[in-house]
């Protein structure tokens, strides 16, 4: 597979989109560590997965001189200067989640100002995160799978049926009321730009912001029965719905709470159980509630689809334009393809952020 790595490295060197922004030169590292802020889950996991998971300790990333002067080592979750990021921690995707966190810290001008909210359905992953990122500010939130198990319908791919995929629907309930905005990120991506730029995106009067893809065939996300029944398809009346990927979203949690969007999503999931109006897991309920009411974000913040399609899988190229976030949505995950020596060329762009206990 040497040719794969070579092709990807040539791509990195020559691609103007990946040179359209500089790396965060002002990131500061040191060997001085401080205790991370955690909570919620048991911290007895150091030997729970000794064979399956062994992550190298990440470097310590410090704020640049121009960052806010707040002492972030003592700041709590309600500090208004923090950037809030929510990611799930799942055993199957843990390697991807760790790489995502690593990438965010590496490219942040103010990495000590980022607070991570980890959603889990297992209570034994906190100490693993703490040992990998001793300087990290984070909190762990337990999401009970039973909360959605009876709402989940079968999908085109079994991985899309996992209860933790639906935890994003409950962020407004899980996170502290003082957290009024959050960036939600999937576990199969890396950020190659300063996350603070995404954080400061204006949502206007919208509840969520995401890159939209209005050229996509929106009808394919729902069944023929959905479109032929005005009780259902009428929900898009007066809207110009566009596809958006729910793996990268900026969410106004305060507005979400006021309107009660969790209940609206749950209602569509209940309809799906009885009427089978879609095939793609947790995405369609979000489209039903928000499509046509999304604050648009630059496409650079979700170069998605790098995992190939959800049925056959395939190697994909980047979309035209600059890149701030690479997303391996689809059935193929870069860590699995790299380990199996069947990597796609762009998987080499994920590898530098991998902290798994061996080198490529």
Automatic annotation (TrEMBL):
Q: Which domain of life is it from?
A: Eukaryota
Q: Name one GO cellular component term.
A: Golgi apparatus
Pathway(s) the chain acts in:
Glycan metabolism; pectin biosynthesis
Q: What coarse category fits the chief subcellular location reported for this protein?
A: membrane
Q: Where is the signal peptide?
A: 1-20
Name the enzyme group at the top EC level.
Answer: transferase
What family does the database annotate?
Answer: Belongs to the glycosyltransferase 8 family.
Protein name per UniProt: Hexosyltransferase
Question: What is the organism field in this record?
Answer: Turnera subulata
